[in-house]
Design brief:
Length: about 150
């Protein structure tokens, strides 16, 4: 039962992340937000198309197509680009780069706090299970014996 709860928590976490990413990607399609944000961040760093292409090991033309939104891009490529730029993928999928305003270290702190809270929840779930199992071991007393005359 404990293992089941842990596995379930992991599945839920992965599913939430997938749904969030899928939603952002769908929102991104019409406006080419990802490409615009990649271009803005590349320019802020003073990188040319050639520099960016070299960092992610693709052609200059491919980088240009990504930035202009004229090509489909896989999630793994998005993650690679985000790593090179030093941001989370979601920062590249949000209009006006709102996520870039969040300090990466602060984001890390939030992730750590979330992880700690999830661990607390698991501990409490385990405690509830343990208490339930203890309760099952206690002999049951018939309530009808209290009302005998």
């Amino acid at each position: 039962m404990k293992r089941f709860l842990e596995d379930n928590e992991n599945r839920i976490s992965v599913l939430k992340e997938f749904i969030t990413m899928n939603y952002l990607i769908e929102q991104n399609k019409g406006e080419r937000i990802f490409g615009k944000n990649v271009r803005n961040m590349r320019n802020k760093r003073g990188w040319s198309l050639k520099d960016m292409a070299g960092k992610i090991d693709i052609s200059i033309a491919a980088v240009s197509k990504i930035e202009t939104g004229f090509t489909d891009i896989s999630l793994s490529r998005m993650e690679q680009i985000a790593r090179v730029l030093g941001v989370d993928v979601t920062a590249l999928l949000v209009k006006n780069m709102q996520m870039e305003l969040i300090d990466i270290s602060f984001y890390g702190e939030l992730q750590k706090e979330l992880s700690e809270r999830q661990k607390e929840i698991l501990k409490l779930q385990r405690k509830v299970i343990d208490l339930y199992e203890e309760l099952q071991k206690v002999p049951k007393v018939s309530t009808s014996s209290f009302y005998k005359k």
